[in-house]
Amino acid sequence: MEYINEILSNLKKNNKYRGEFKKLQSPQKEKVVIDGREIILLGSNNYLGLCDHKEVKKASMEAIEKYGVGAGGSRLTTGSYTLHSMLEEKIKDIKGTQKALVFNTGYMANLGIIQALCNKDWVIFCDKYNHASILDGCLLSGAKFLRYRHCDMDDLSYKLENFKGKCNLIVTDGVFSMDGDIAPLDKIVEISKKHNAVIMVDDAHGFGVLGKDGAGTASYFGVNSEIHIHMGTLSKAVGSIGGYAASEEYFIEYFKNFSRSFIFSTALPPSSVAASIKALDIIKNEPLRRQRLLENSHRFKMELKNLGFKIPDTVTPIIPVIVGDEEKTLEFSRQLLYDRIYIPAIRPPTVPKGSSRLRISITAAHAWEDLEYVIERLKTTGRKLGLI
Ligand code: PMP
């Protein structure tokens, strides 16, 4: 297996080795301790600050007291608790669907949904910037899949007109995780109707953030009921862990029976499920959190734009600061860490070549004075690196 060592040393030589994690020594929140230093964290998907919420933690601990720490089996055997069903009820109510099904992660939800639904009779039309778990689901399904240019509706229509199969699935992220832009779901719905295609939306980053009561990107566009399969995660705005599918009953029953990542894996532990249930209540009952998140993000973006940074127009808390050059991006991130700010550098293959970036994500929990400090350091370092 000499070639494995060779590949690893090449990665190291080219500064592409990923394995030296920054280890947090404190809870996941707006400020964290890394290597004994307090750092402002601007890369987390903990958008609403719920990972370390007192009530969420209490609900989780009570579930441990009552049910223990492990589920002990798959949902289909011995691992299904009343809590899992309660969570599914809540998700289906938020999404306005007939039913929901909880998976262990968003990754497993994408894998399980697409693998169960599609086979060689299907053609899958996939946005070029879709999350890796969607691609992996497509590969696992054995379906033919085509990637259309990012959010390019002409390309999607062209591909559907020319390469349609017996059954067709259009799958897109609601919010794109590395760019923070949103898919034009209103237009995708129109196109899908014309071609009688099933639509699936991965709303990992929109759930809890956009739309009525945080219902997500489809709700933001007013097309919730037109999306056939809603997929999402409980690991971002919800602050816990888990994935879901929300849809009509027959789809959900089908996934229960055929999604291998659902069938062959131990269920989520009761503590995580209880945390998600409490967090969803908080999201519903405290709309100010979401409002603060969107206000913080908007204000921060405007400040960076005024400084001359290249920032796309988006309505989400994900703010990519495009640097381009990989080395420069790493250097930017390193210098900010020295100033006690952690913003991850994102490089190919996660993003296209030449578009390396700092991926900033704002949360509702960030104090504006801390964000002001970050803006000031971004300005100084950005100038030093010749970016503005
Ligand atoms: N879809 C998208 C768009 C994501 O960004 C992610 C997580 N990065 C996932 C799916 C996977 O979700 P999870 O982390 O819950 O596995």
From TrEMBL:
NCBIfam families listed in its UniProt record: bioF
The gene from which this protein is expressed is: bioF
- Name the family: Belongs to the class-II pyridoxal-phosphate-dependent aminotransferase family. BioF subfamily.
Q: Write down the InterPro entries for this protein, in alphabetical order.
A: Aminotrans_II_pyridoxalP_BS, Aminotransferase_I/II_large, AON_synthase_class-II, AONS_Archaea/Proteobacteria, PyrdxlP-dep_Trfase, PyrdxlP-dep_Trfase_major, PyrdxlP-dep_Trfase_small
Needed co-factor(s): pyridoxal 5'-phosphate
EC number(s): the record gives 2.3.1.47
**Which protein, by its recorded name, is this?**
8-amino-7-ketopelargonate synthase
| Residues annotated with N6-(pyridoxal phosphate)lysine modification | K236
Keyword vocabulary terms for this entry: Acyltransferase, Biotin biosynthesis, Pyridoxal phosphate, Transferase
Database matches in PANTHER family: CLASS II AMINOTRANSFERASE/8-AMINO-7-OXONONANOATE SYNTHASE, LD36009P
Q: Hey, which pathway is this one from?
A: Cofactor biosynthesis; biotin biosynthesis
Any one GO BP annotation for this protein: biotin biosynthetic process
Q: A single Pfam family, by name?
A: Aminotran_1_2
The protein's job, in short, is: Catalyzes the decarboxylative condensation of pimeloyl-[acyl-carrier protein] and L-alanine to produce 8-amino-7-oxononanoate (AON), [acyl-carrier protein], and carbon dioxide.
Q: Subunit structure of this entry? A: Homodimer.
**UniProt xrefs under CDD domains:** KBL_like
